Amino acid sequence: MPKYYDLEDRTLDFSKKLILFIKALPRSQINLRLADQIIRSGTSMGANYREANETETKKDFKFRIRICRKEGKETVYWFELITEANPQLKEKIKPLLQETIELVKIFAAILMKSE
Fold first, then answer.
1. Residue 60 lies in a domain
2. Which CATH number belongs to the domain containing residue 42 in this structure?
3. What is the per-residue pLDDT across 21-56, written as a single tens digit (0 to 9) for each?
């Protein structure tokens, strides 16, 4: 039986893993700035998805889901820069990056279905 994922739980789990990754990131000026950016965009997906689920209108729902997708794409961008700044962490970043890409695809699919 396939594993059931509630998207609120899945985005929360992703945010927790992202926080743990960032806490273990080597301290440097560059990493501190990249960490600040990726924490904002990465955790925003889950927060905005929860907001989307509480909206009153279809228009507001789609607006929030678009934000989720946008923040996911931004998170991919920050992971690419963190990888560039820390090539030794590429293998640790890979599953987080893959999950981000999957979440972006899920939000895109939700948007398409809500049109």
1. yes
2. 1.20.1440.60
3. 999 999 999 999 999 999 999 999 999 999 999 999
